[in-house]
Amino acid sequence: MDILDILKKYNFWDKPILELGYLRTRYFQQISHSLNNSLVKVILGQRRAGKSYLLRMIIHYLQHEMQVPSQNILYINKDLHDFAFITNRYVLMDVINQYQSAMKPNGKIYLFLDEIQEIEEWEYVINSLSQDYTQQYEIVITGSNANLLSSELATYLGGRYVECTVYPFSYAEYLDYKNLTRKKETFLHYLTMGGIPEIYHLAHIEMQQNYIATLKDSIVLRDIIHRHAIRDVYLLEKIIDFLLDSVGSLFSISSVCDTLNKASANCNYETISNYLRFLQEAFFIHECERFDVKGKRILTGERKYYLNDLAFKYFSTSSFDMGLNRFLENAIYLDLRRKGYSVYVGNMNNKEVDFVAEKAGERMYLQVAYLLNNENVLHREFDNLAAIRDHYPKYVITLDDVNFGNREGIMHKQAWEFID
Asked: Which DSSP helix (H) or strand (E) runs through 210?
């Protein structure tokens, strides 16, 4: 099969898009509203989070709503084996040139390049095309590694891009997708299933468990071990196990190193730090630093880590009943990140505030608890927030069946009513 045959097979020049998938309005609007300019659109996110579906939705929108001729749209997906031959920037540019020669698009060309990090020195091509004054290009790329923005892309494009990070399904999307009602029962089920839509179609827990294990292996193997030439795979697996068991717990890199060395894993501070960074870049985990509420500064040392999807914890451990508060805390963290907040662990006079969330000059404080089942718990959760003397909103979020209302300006919210 030659290059043009492959392009015709996967593009939509003479056939409709058969699998559009579930319309994820938040991300679709963010990308569609950013079209019609010279900025490169960058869609980032964990594997299987829905980036490819989003691209196909945008292509469908261009064809049917914006009346863009089909031959003006080129789609390349590096996750597909037929595109394995595109290994570097020279092959990529050759493919684009062959497409233009064969299809002869008139006017602006729309390029959709999926999982572009699999192409060596891709940034040279994107930079060149985005600045080409002889031909107008609208470029949308996706990647499963956050390092795209922190190094290659930022260096070569110098800010000439817009970013969209795609997370697994939110609770609201889960409800809509499954046609369910917002209530405690469905929220608890969401905590176990997570937000990867493929898992919703698997009827048996063994199949679900196998799917999540395979997805985890894909992220670890393709985006970490191969990309960074990891030699000590055993140590990486031990770090992942440690993170799964320690979701929402404060710890330092030094303490992780000490714990793993006691478990016969030979490691040091630099290696642990690098492996944690690789896991963040692959969107497997998120780091949550500590914030001094009184001093208004980031604190060094201990921090927390949260999973990008709860299914990785539920289907990798057997601790759901014992660690329900950790699942809830992780879900609230992800909800805040989806909404565009920067999220920190608060510290106020040596008392911990679960989350300090900031966005566009606004701030809110949140405590997360399983149940407010006695006076001691009530005082602990509300008093930590009451010690903060400012005008920003303060919430205590729990799984209680009863809403305790407003106590001294601090609002109690049931999790399934607070989270989107």
From this structure: helix 205-220
**String of b and e for 68-96 (b: at least 16 CB within 10 Å)?**
bebbbbbbbbbbeeebeebeebebbeebb
Report the DSSP beta bridge partners of residue 343.
Answer: 357
For every residue of 276-310, DSSP letters joined together read HHHHHHTTSEEEEEEEETTTTEEEEEEEEEEES-T
Query: Do 99 and 113 touch, CB atoms closer than 8 A?
Result: no
Judge whether 27 and 55 are in contact, CB under 8 Å: no
Q: What is the pLDDT of residues 259-303, one digit of tens each?
A: 888 877 788 899 999 999 999 999 999 999 999 887 788 888 899
Q: Mean pLDDT across the stretch 327-353?
A: 93
Q: What is the pTM of this model?
A: 0.93
Cα distances (angstroms) measured from residue 38 to each of 48, 137, 138, 316, 347: 28, 7, 6, 44, 43
Return the pLDDT at 317.
Answer: 66
Mapped onto helix, strand or coil, the DSSP state of residue 410 is strand
Q: Which domains does the chain have, with CATH numbers?
A: 3-166 (3.40.50.300), 171-418 (no CATH)
